[in-house]
Design a protein that fits this description.
With 1857 residues, the protein is an alpha/beta fold. The chain contains 63 helices and 65 strands. A 6-stranded mixed β-sheet has the order 5-19-20-3-21-22. Strands 10-9-11-8-12-13 form a 6-stranded antiparallel β-sheet. Strands 27-30-31-25-32-33 form a 6-stranded mixed β-sheet, with helices on both faces. Helix 10 packs parallel to helix 11. 46% of the residues are buried.
Length: 1857
Amino acid sequence: MQGKPLRSNKRGMGSRKLAHTIRLRGVSQNNLKDIDVDIPLGKLVVVTGLSGTGKSSLVFETLHAEGQRRYVETFSPYIRQFLEMLQRPEVKSVENIRPSIAIQQTNTVKTSRSTVGTMTELCDFFKVWFSHTSSLYDPATGKKIEADTPQSIWKKMLKTHRDKRCLLAFKIHKPEKLSWKEIVDPLMRQGYTRALLTGKDPIKRLDDINLSTIQGDALYVIQDRIEIGPRQKTRFIESATTALHFGSKELFIFSEIGKLIEHFTEGLVSSKTGQLFKPAQPNLFSFNSPVGACPTCRGFGRTIEIDPALVIPDPTLSLKDGVIRPFKGDVYKECQRELLEAAKKHRIPTSKPWSQLSEKARRFVLEGEQGYGDTGKTWPDAWYGVHRFFDWLESKTYKMHVRVFLSKYRSYATCRNCCGARLREDALYFKWNGYTLPELYQMPISKLNALLATQCIETGNHGADIALESILTRLNYLEQVGLGYLTLNRTSRTLSGGETQRVNLTACLGTSLIDTLFVLDEPSIGLHASDIQRLIDILKNLVAQGNTVVIVEHDEAIMRAADHILELGPKPGSQGGKLTFSGTPIAMMNEPKSITGNYLSGRMRIEHPQQRRKTGKKTAQLNIQQASLHNIQGLSLQIPLQRFVAISGISGSGKSTLLDNIIYQGWQAQEGKLTEYPASIKSISSNLPIDDIILVDQSPISKTPRSNPALYCDAWTSIRELFAKTDAAMAHGMNAANFSFNSGQGRCEHCQGLGYERVDMQFLSDVYIPCGICEGKRFKEEVLSIKLYGKSVFEVLSMDIEEACVFFSKTPKITKRLKPLQDVGLGYLTLGQPLNTLSGGESQRLKLIQYLGNINEEKHILLLLDEPTTGLHRDDIKKLIEVLQKLVDQGNSLVVIEHQVDVLAAADWIIEMGPGAGEAGGQCIAEGSPAVIQKHKTSTAPFLKEVLKNEKIDVFPEIKTSILQAAEPSSQFDESPSLALIGAREHNLKNISLSIPLHSLSVVTGVSGSGKSSLAFDIIFAEGQRRFMESMSAYARQFVEQLPRADIDQLSHVPPTIAIEQRVTRGSRKSTVATITEVAQYLRLLYSKIGEQYSPHTGERVSSASIDALKKKLEKHLQGQTSKASLYLCAPVIQARKGHHQPLANWALTKGYTHLRIDGVITELSKFKALDRYREHDIELVIADIHPRHTKNKRERAEKLEEALQRGKGSAFIINKHGNKEWFSTKRTDPITGEAFPELDPKHFSWNSPKGWCEHCRGYGHLYTWMASDENFTIKAKAIEDGSACPACQGARLNAISRHVKLNTQQKAYSLPELLERTSSELLGLLEKLKLDKRATHIAATILPEIIERLQFMKEVGLEYLALNRETATLSGGEAQRIRLASQLGSNLSGALYILDEPSIGLHARDNDRLIRSLTNLKNRGNTLLVVEHDEDTMRAADHIIDLGPGAGIHGGEILAEGPIKSILKNKASLTGQYLKNALKHPLHGKYRQLPEPWNPRKKTEQPEWLVLRKPSLRNLKGDDVSFAIGKLNVLCGISGSGKSTLMRDLLKPLVEEAIKEKQERLKLQNGNGPRLRCAFKDLTHGNIFKQVIEVDQEPIGKTIRSTPATYIGIFDRIREFFASLPEAKMHGFSSSTFSFNTANGRCATCKGAGRIKLEMNFMPDTYVSCEDCQGTRYGPELLDIQWKDKNIADVLNLSFEEASDFFDFHSQLQAVCKLMVECGLGYLKLGQASPTLSGGEAQRLKLVSELAKGLPSFKEKSRGIQSNNLYLLEEPTIGLHLSDCKRLIELFHRLVNQGHTVIVIEHHLDLIAEADYLIEMGPEGGDCGGQVLYQGSVKGLLGCKKSRTAPYIKALMAKG
């Protein structure tokens, strides 16, 4: 779009300053006290403070929640419902927030597909590197195999057969359907003369061969006779190439006498077996790709099989005693009997233990009789064996009880096919340095890193070398964070939380994301002090790449290394939540009020024991002998008892194995208790009796909210007893049970004592609202009235531990239980805090208090703790050490894994494991007191030595670490880094490399089809989103479209990306403004959750009904039944929820139910199969089968009804065989009629769902003539007036029940359709006046902000005049575009990369100026914009331009120019620059066509000159008469929404079509087409003169692989007809349909005409490979032999339209269409190219050609010189077109006009407007403010029109020309 220049805006990074902080204002999340926080961008920020002060509330629940939420909101509503939607935090404002990734101490990975290698992307780089560096080894010989090529064959032949004459030949196989004659004749026509046969004289001339004597189905055709010598090299290679082509990659070389001397196969072939191997390609080495995954285990490495150990768990039992466990129960006891009979028959002892039976006898029992299945050897006459028993069960797995039974005997086993390697057999034949790829994955990372670093050399292949560089860098990262002991094939699910966090940290560094906010939760956990500096280097590197890193941390070394520290305090719990410090570490150390600063500076310290417990020979010991597991092998150790023992050592040295698997599980196993994974131990003993051994880990204490600290420490029972003893309680007859919220009569019955109600919000986070009855207080009113020392039971539960200790100070029994919580630093917890909300560290400390308050000093308990300092501030550690010492003082033994140096210094004895990690660890390298350990040369010693001196650690001892280098190039954070792309080869891109400045506006331009979308969307967007999505859960990622990795070498410095793609579709008739803005989706949720329901029959508000009333209603309903058929009583249990719902079916089966009603179908539970997990399902539990005539069963029916109401949570229904329902509800009943209604669901308010739509119009709101022929509608044709309002719903779209749910405002109650009748500004006003109770207020607080935000977007883009129920089909292109841009540009993110696809489409030049200003503002917020665009003003406003070309398709994909606009204009190679520099001169042909005199109804002319529409008044049209010049180029222009589309598409088109049909020169009002048009105009004149109306709209073309340009424009039918007319085709009986790749007759049977095979794998992107049978041609061999002009059908489809234009020179119609494609700039496209590969501009022009082709003159018209007169209507045909393509399009329109046609175009492109012979401008604004005709006339006249919004832009354009 060209026009007047925008106001000068200073571009360049120096002219503006980006914000440098994330600004949080008024943060009130949880205990945070309305704090304001500034977080510097591009820095390492540490958030610290005492435990419970609000650190996680700030970092994770506020900062991360807002950053992730805003990014996730840019995804589609469908995807968002699967992603973890964090709640909007309680914060007043958040500015400059970046997309956020949380790296937490949790491992949520469940899939076995995820490994350390996949998490870090190492597997992706390995498969690229390995495919280039590995060699294939023949499995038959073990020798290396190299591929044969014509060049390599020549070298071999020259070496072995020099100077010898040879015959080069290829083999022809005869298809069954063809004769030899049909094969030989075409060969002879191609010039082949000789062939080889078997026999004495093998060499024959083809015309001499007796074809009937050819034996077999093969013939060797001689390609060439040649003497092997240096001079014949070129000839040999050419002949070999041809022979390999026709011989299906096989070449046979014979001697002169016809003896075979060599056989070559192009590709990798075994010299011994002839086996052909696939060449190495990256996907072959990926177990997550169908190409490379083992077909047996599908890449998992394991399969589920029957486990012999589960079938025979106790081999000491005999057959008689039931050694075969599956035969022991009642179900298959007959099998046991048959086994004993068979054993007796074959003399197998039945009383001897299984372990003592002979191998032959055991094989008989398991495998059955030999020859079983032969005649006479089948059941019941022969024993089938245990294995066949399970095979038989496998055939019955459709039955649920069989599946449940089998699950008891199945377990995972290593895949027998790949032996756990995960890859298919072919991939394992490739090796590098003797290693297969799985063998490399099995090496410890440290060993693998060393091997690759020393053995690898550069290959010279750019992609492989970059992959190797990335591999080495990532392996180095993993070593730096102390994970060198892991292997790449280690499954992610087996990693600890700390290991997962560190792996994810290195993965994030490896992705090379930039401008991202990373938040981490104590990454130092699990790290030895010597590893901390390495972690700091990693964090600093992540910052150096241009990211912001915020860490919740207590480690002092990390705090000292931070750029900025935030401290929260001053105390935990309710006394915390304040920002006590913000600044640098040095400033913190100088701040005396900061408790953290006091510890950092040394003003405060943890005092170490003055005297330790002595440990000597007489000290009791735990003696461990020869313990082995993992990296610990043969360890013998003595651990002192009744001492404080600490286990230290670097990460991976074997500490957890020692504590858990050896000490804990080893002791338990020795005691005969069940353990999971004990070590192999020769002996473990103690010379002091151990009464109990307890492992206190960090696993959650409880998963339910019903447990709390008061219950856990056993204080609650005593507190309840105190309440029960009060006078008030005794007076009311209450006991202690009345004060329990988990049971009894005192708890609130509505919430069952929880205090809250959970509201399922579907695609929003669930809302927990206070119970409406007890208001969150959990108890009944009468219980709450009882006071203990002036406080109610709820008030007591709300106290924190410290308050409670004071409150109950006079009750020692209670304070004794509570005091230990204070001692371990948990005094800030409230008595009633749910335990499922505690962190891992809090859980571990809470477990300790059980022993602090209850340990009997007479007992000796061995306590084992794993890092108890997790999550603790140093001040809290001080308290913890006191607690631990107290435990030992009580006579117990304590063994603690710990890295925290203060804890180590406080221990009596230290055991240090090492010296390294993994294989290098597993040894006890030092043991003794801290004083002894500090003298050793171990990793712990230097740190311990510093602490024991009571000196602060300012600097770490020197640690030898390799220099960290980013996986991708990195730079220090600044305002102007660049995104770097190297080696892009996606689609037609020709290995291009480029850089795109960040925080700038860049434009990608170039001719249509040059590769712009491939670059912007298929590479940069796909990679940016994929890298961010890797941080999401595996479950969430499967619902996001899995884009395959782009074909590139490297992409670095890419921010999280947001794609705003071009959508030119107008939507269905059900699509409205409310649905495309998502307002409707949120309103549906709002109505379903807080709407007040009224009866559609009486108008009364529905209310609750008693169960007795419902029982009477049931009996009354049954009495009214006339049918004897039974009814089903059902309880709804699942409503519109995705999932396979297997657990529900299992539960129902165990409860004795027999049927479910699933999505309206009654299903037997025994035949239940897991449902489609990606679809929403409605499931009801069938409670009973009720027979109306059985009157005696009244009591039983009443009981069943009660049961149904209980299961359905107050709702149930009965349904007959016709599907008619009668509802019963305790909550939703009409008080007058007793009619019950279902519980509301968002789908009840959707006109796209049967639950919500009006049954008459099915949600359309209007009736249309097509409905009469649709079987889904019961509407008679006579009753339909096309477009009239539905008589049932009056256009509301919803059914009566849904229309009678209302929201109350201060004025009146509104139904959803009534709200949607409002404009966005009106609805905003109504929402402010909603009347809501407390419950509704809580729910609306989550939904209303989403609605208001979207309505404000509408207002901001000037569309507040649109009614929300307006159909999107009636919107103008500009209105639709502005809605879409507003909704996606309004996320208020910073640091994101927005990729936009032609945002200017549909926009008037004035609106485009506004858009450019919006894009500039978005850039100034710190975002990067990459815009695919052809608009001149956008390019001139850009900071950077990338021009692709020079042509389209195969002629494009190169960078012609890049840089600022000035350099583009100077670059002669830039096609865009030349067009921008040299503006088009208008008119192109020197002058405009002369316009006739203005139309006068009284003046007659020889030929009609004007098409006149008078008084048009549809929608916003104001009745101004409009004239169109016949035989001229007419252009409709004007502001978006001004009425252009309404005038042309919705009024003019149907009226002209009606005039042609009725042959009326003047079409009057009464003859209008359809009821909506009958009053929308006065008359139309001269509409009848046209032959036809041809409209080119913006609907998309087909996007399936089976759609091609040839099929779309209709020429393929004629091509097929020609092939079918050939003699050879007729001889075989082939018709035109045989030559279609969409029908079964002639297409390739393997790929079914697709030319490729789709390989699918669960949770992975689909992979396509070329069909090996047809080589991608789509056809079977029979058709490929039939040729027309030396080309078969596949060859023709492979022609470009330029080539086809010459090829079809004999057919005028085909040639004309092909030339039309060339004229439209699409000559490079191939006839058979798949439509999904076309760009937006290519698709748009293809549609234009398909419509223009309809107007081509027929042969009759051409031969007789008949001039046709068509009316062409086009809407914005320049969409997606480059300036050069627009010029070509203008020329095409002029040719159409010159041929006598009339062209009317709606257009905003100024060059096309300036070419118009006749202009009509609509306006002055959009919507109700538009609809006027501002101007009609020539372009010259427009320039003087003051009312015109277009004139200033045209004037500026003409001035440039």
